[in-house]
Amino acid sequence: MVTSSTPQFQSEIGQLRGLIAEMGGLAEVAITDAIDALVRHDEDLAHTVVAGDAKLDALEAEVDRLAVRIIALRAPMADDLRDVIAALKISGVIERIGDYAKNIAKRVGEIDDRRKFEPLTLIPVMAGIAQSMVRDVLNAYGARDATLAIEVINRDEKVDNFYDSIFRNLVAHMMENPSTISTAAQLLFVARNLERIGDHATNVAEMVYFAATGLYYSERGNPGGLEKVI
After folding, report:
1. What does the DSSP assignment read for the chain?
2. Which CATH number fits domain 7-228: 3.60.130.10, 1.20.58.220, 1.20.1600.10, 3.30.565.10?
3. What b/e string do you get for 79-89 counting C-beta neighbours within 10 Å, with b at 16 or more?
4. Alpha carbon distance 114, 75 (integer Å)
5. CA distances from 53 to 23, 88, 122, 191 (A)
6. What are the pLDDT digits (tens) for 103-150?
7. Would you kindly state where each structural domain of the chain is located, as residue ranges?
8. Inter-axis angle of helices 181-213 and 119-143, nearest 10
9. Is 128:197 a contact under the CB 8 Å cutoff?
10. Considering the chain, what is the average pLDDT of its residues?
11. Torsions phi, psi of 165, nearest 5?
12. How confident is the model at residue 220 (pLDDT cuts 50, 70, 90)?
């Protein structure tokens, strides 16, 4: 059996990280394109986002196969095992982020009268924060940077605040203009998906923290609530 810390094992860990980086890049592009399609009412671009989700699904399956192979054949321990477990979990979360981007793209054709909706001007800003969280948490994963992971966790509050603001704005708009309820509901769905992207980026950040330190980040923003596990 070839154990961990050998050149073969390190090569396989490199492959895992490369797959995660590729998935993350695709997820970032999907978020950007979905929001661009929404703002510009570009249904062709929206269809491209929806179709592109299959690539993320395929990469997740590839990560699963490689991670299982490494665990079965290399018997990794401690830091090495955390690397493999983190990659396995993170790939599933990134796949879900891609699903949220796909969900946003699917709403492009359902939203009319965009000029009447002030919240639509807030959504790209909210999306930019969520996308930056995805980008930075993947950088943190690649560098095993626990400090950057914590910064991503703390940034989730900004996304939540945007969601609350958009929610209140849309509810008020629907009450004043009942004829716009359908479109406003679609925008609320978009905002909710962006909020979930932020939550998932936060989940990845917590996994990165674990992979880098061997500690669970059990209470957000409270390093005193950490608990040693491996």
Report:
1. ---TTSHHHHHHHHHHHHHHHHHHHHHHHHHHHHHHHHHHT-HHHHHHHHHHHHHHHHHHHHHHHHHHHHHHHH---HHHHHHHHHHHHHHHHHHHHHHHHHHHHHTGGG---GGG-THHHHHHHHHHHHHHHHHHHHHHHHHT-HHHHHHHHHHHHHHHHHHHHHHHHHHHHHHH-GGGHHHHHHHHHHHHHHHHHHHHHHHHHHHHHHHHHSEEE-STT-GGGEEE--
2. 1.20.58.220
3. ebbbbbbbbbb
4. 55
5. 10, 18, 25, 20
6. 999 999 887 655 556 667 889 999 999 999 999 999 999 898 999 999
7. 7-228
8. 20
9. no
10. 87
11. -65, -45
12. very low
What tens digit of pLDDT does each residue of 186-219 get?
A: 999 999 999 999 999 999 999 899 888 878 886 4
CA angle 187/188/194 to nearest 5° reads: 90
Q: Which tokens sit at 127?
A: 């999306």
pTM tops 0.85:
yes
Measured CA to CA, the distance from residue 44 to residue 51 in angstroms comes to 11
